[in-house]
Amino acid sequence: MKSLKDYLDKINPVDRNITTGVQKRLDSQTKPLGSLGRLESFCRQLASVQGTVDPLYEKKVIFTLAGDHGIVEEGVSAYSQSVTAQMVANFLNGGAGVNVLAKHAGCSVVVVDMGVASDLDFKGCVGRKIDYGTKNFTKGPAMTREQAEKSIVTGIELALDYDFDILGTGDMGIGNTTPSSAIVSVLTGIEVQEITGRGTGIDDNALMKKVNAIKKGISVNNPDPADPVDVLSKVGGFEIGGITGLIIGAAIKKKLAVVDGFISTAGAIIAQDLNEDISDYFVLSHLSAEKGHDIFAKYLGKKPVLDLGMKLGEGTGAALAIELIDAAMHIYYEMATFDQAGVDKKIEA
Predict the structure, then answer these.
(1) The 3-state secondary structure of the chain, one letter per residue
(2) Active-site hit among 74, 149, 314, 323
(3) Is this model's pTM higher than 0.90 or not?
(4) Is pLDDT of 153 > 90?
(5) Annotated catalytic residue 314
């Protein structure tokens, strides 16, 4: 089994020179220069990631990773832990938001048990359980360092094992906005209350419990902000580590990762902190309505593709953004050039 370091060493910078040829093709099409805005940037990024002016985009998959969290003992969620397993069943039956939107976007959905707190024997569920949920991090580390590394490596190997041109990330785990806030607070140095929101819709009292639980967990465990794996192990989650790995795995394969919302972005921050070259291999699909997500995006230096007031997770935002990337690539390959259409080009001054 390869180590996390072995995998990180496989990541190379994207080929930025490719974008010149991509832009030349876009500029030859029947439109004013740059008039399709960020759609054109998607074409450039996909090409630079794959290292070719003829990038592929047809095969699209969303990984929805599930895991439970011991921190729910502190009353930080509006739902009981049993909902995680129930939602896994819903994903596998095709009844969740991500299933509907992924189908619309032409994406397959892979549901993975990274650490659900019960045994799952659902047909179609990919079993990669690290443990039966994390520990309550107000009382000690959420997981061991070995488990943290394993969660990331598991995500990497999932990405390597599946065939895709574009990968989307998704999550399911009752209580997982709490470790996500904790991770990002430690890695960015931003105060806990600035990036901690209401998650599944908790009231003021539960929000206060949530903020206090995160502060206590950070105090008890003293995670090292210079060591993202240490932070993940002390206050993180198995599905968050898995998402980190998916993004790393996509970069190794020279494929684009489309990162979902609040929880997935916490995973992206870990990935980028582990290797800064990873930044060019992913986009943020949307700006979550969860408090603090805009701070996450600014830390990464990214502008989310969409801002729809969503905060469902699962991979729903990734599915929508993938549709726009798909649309951009259809433009790139199918829109006529000025010469083909017999349209006069812009008059030169």
Answers:
(1) CCCHHHHHCCCCCCCCCHHHHHHHHHHCECCCCCCCCHHHHHHHHHHHHHCCCCCCCCCEEEEEEEECCHHHHHCCCCCCCHHHHHHHHHHHCCCCHHHHHHHHHCEEEEEEEEECCCCCCCCCCEECCCCCCCCCCCCCCCCCHHHHHHHHHHHHHHHHHCCCCEEEEEEECCCCHHHHHHHHHHHHCCCHHHCCCCCCCCCHHHHHHHHHHHHHHHHHHCCCCCCHHHHHHHHCCHHHHHHHHHHHHHHHCCCEEEECCHHHHHHHHHHHHHCHHHHHHEEECECCCCCCHHHHHHHHCCCCCECCCCCCCCCHHHHHHHHHHHHHHHHHHHCCEHHHHCCCCCCCC
(2) 314
(3) yes
(4) yes
(5) yes
